[in-house]
Amino acid sequence: MLRTATMVSLAATSGVALAQPAITVEIDEPVLLPGESTTVTLLAGFDSSDFAIATIGFDFMTSVGSDGWSEAELIRPMDFFGMPGVPTSTGYDDVLANQINSAAIGGPSYADTTNPIPFWRATYTAPSDVRGVMEVDLSTVTNRYDVYVGRLSWIPESRLDELVEGSGTIAVIPAPASAVVLALGVVRVRRRR
Questions:
Q1: What pLDDT, on a 0 to 100 scale, did the predictor assign at position 189?
Q2: 8-22, 70-84, 108-122, 161-175: which has the minimum mean pLDDT?
Q3: Which among 134, 146, 124 is positioned nearest to 58, based on CA atoms?
Q4: CA dihedral defined by 193, 29, 54, 16, rounded to 10 degrees?
Q5: Can you give the pTM of this predicted structure?
Q6: How would you write the chain as a 3-class SS string?
Q7: Overall fold of domain 3-192
Q8: Beta strand 86-88 with 91-98: parallel, antiparallel or unpaired?
Q9: pLDDT value at 143 more than 80
């Protein structure tokens, strides 16, 4: 059974192996003004008893579809014969990211064992005509999540049943509203002094 968790920042987990298979949504700037852009990166984590991520097949879902999204790409080394997805009315469909563990079959190198490993990213640009606060909800719907179980394994094993899906939110706040939020923050700081 797939579970969903909101994981917006890796600050707490950076450099630490995850305890279970999970997709993490990392948003560089989760609060934007109209017309501003941010980069969204997806990372894949796996149980420390496994060796490396092999293949991830998923749809990247957004509440605005593919409107405002650009530069979708797979991140090396998870770009071995993969696809960054097809822009649709629901986001990006049919994304396929994978890496090969070529040393297991006599090749020159082992799979990258970074945990979590970045595997997909895209840029979101907020519309310039936003009048009120707008939230862009993000989530993953995964249909394949395979790992290499050992250094010499070349046949991946599925971890889809244990996967925690990724989710996040980008907030777009019009300039007058952001000035009010900033002013309230300054007033609170002054009151504390």
A1: 40
A2: 8-22
A3: 146
A4: -10
A5: 0.81
A6: CCEECCCCCCCCCCCCCCCCCEEEEEECCCEECCCCEEEEEEEEECCCCCCEEEEEEEEEEECCCCCCEEEEEECCCCECCCECCEEECCEEEEEEEECCCHHHHCCCCCCCCCCCEEEEEEEEECCCCCCCCEEEEEEEEEEEEEEECCCCCCCCEECHHHCEECEEEEEECCHHHHHHHHHHHHHHHHHHC
A7: Immunoglobulin-like (2.60.40)
A8: antiparallel
A9: yes
Q: Where exactly are the structural domains of the chain?
A: 3-192
Rounded Cα–Cα distance for residues 98 and 147 (Å): 10
- End-to-end Cα separation, the chain, in angstroms: 50
Q: State mean pLDDT over 104-111.
A: 82
Please identify which residue in the block is written with the tokens 């862009």: 136
Chain position carrying tokens 């290499």: 148
In this predicted structure, which of 67-76, 99-108, 142-151, 181-190 has the lowest mean pLDDT?
A: 181-190
Which tokens hold the place of 47? 């149980």
Q: Quote the distance between the C-alpha of residue 70 and its chain's center.
A: 15
Q: Which amino acid belongs to residue 171?
A: A
